[in-house]
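Hi team,

As requested, here is the filled-out complex form for the S-adenosyl-L-homocysteine run. I kept the field names the same as last time so the parser does not choke. Let me know if anything looks off before we queue the next batch.

— J.
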Amino acid sequence: MDELELLVDLHRGAARQGPGGEAETKLALDLARVDRSRPLRIVDIGCGTGASTLLLAKELNAEITAVDFLQEFLDELRSRAHEQGVLDKIATVNCSMDALPFAEGEFDVIWSEGAIYNMGFEAGVSAWRRFLKPGGKLVVSEITWLTAARPPEIQAHWEREYPEVDVASAKLESLERHGYSPGAFFVLPRHCWTEAYYHPLLSRFEGFLDRHGQSEAARRIVAAEKDEIALYERYGAYYSYGVYVSGKVGE
Ligand code: SAH
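And here is what came back:
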């Protein structure tokens, strides 16, 4: 198994592939003030195994297109949707978020949790705008600095991992520049990282290593995940995901 296959194997059994929470997804949905009086068309980009997709399907009268480029995650999402009785509201599409096969103005809402960094926030919000109806809503979470300055170690880490990391004011400015009107912003609280994401991940390490005969490659992956968790333990006061709720303005 190569590294990507190992990562998929580690993460596919999880309810989520990044920090988040049901209460926070619901909060973002409330803040987006979507028109619930008619059926909605929603796309969830970088959906993983469907943490937000499944919740949106349960909450809304909506047709949801769930997009990811890993078929294993989409298969898992479908099986969860079936178990939870919402498969009829969800279509899965395997494609890359930077080459979406949708028509102009197709969606009332674009949703994306913990995924847009894969193509970059600016590139993502600017490329996806055309798929929104006029006045449509964009709800996107993005790694965000929580303070104006931070310790050099964590600064260097995120600049290496994701050069676009920035403070919320810069992300809001970027949304404005790309034809959105920011309506709300909040920060994912600590438990979205720990109880919701890192703790379940930690509990899967042993089984994962055993499945792969304690191979060098599997141990490298676990070590990298543990480093990420340790960084969060030390520096979690300085970064989180910001959740940005905006409306499309103009044509
Ligand atoms: N939204 C989910 C998953 C977040 S992890 C959650 O909150 O749990 C990021 C997801 O983006 C993964 O499922 C990964 O497979 C997907 N992804 C990464 N790069 C992608 C790309 N270029 N196109 C589509 N999906 C991508």
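Two things worth flagging: The CA atoms of residues 7 and 221 lie 7 Å apart. The chain has a mean pLDDT of 97.

Thanks,
J.
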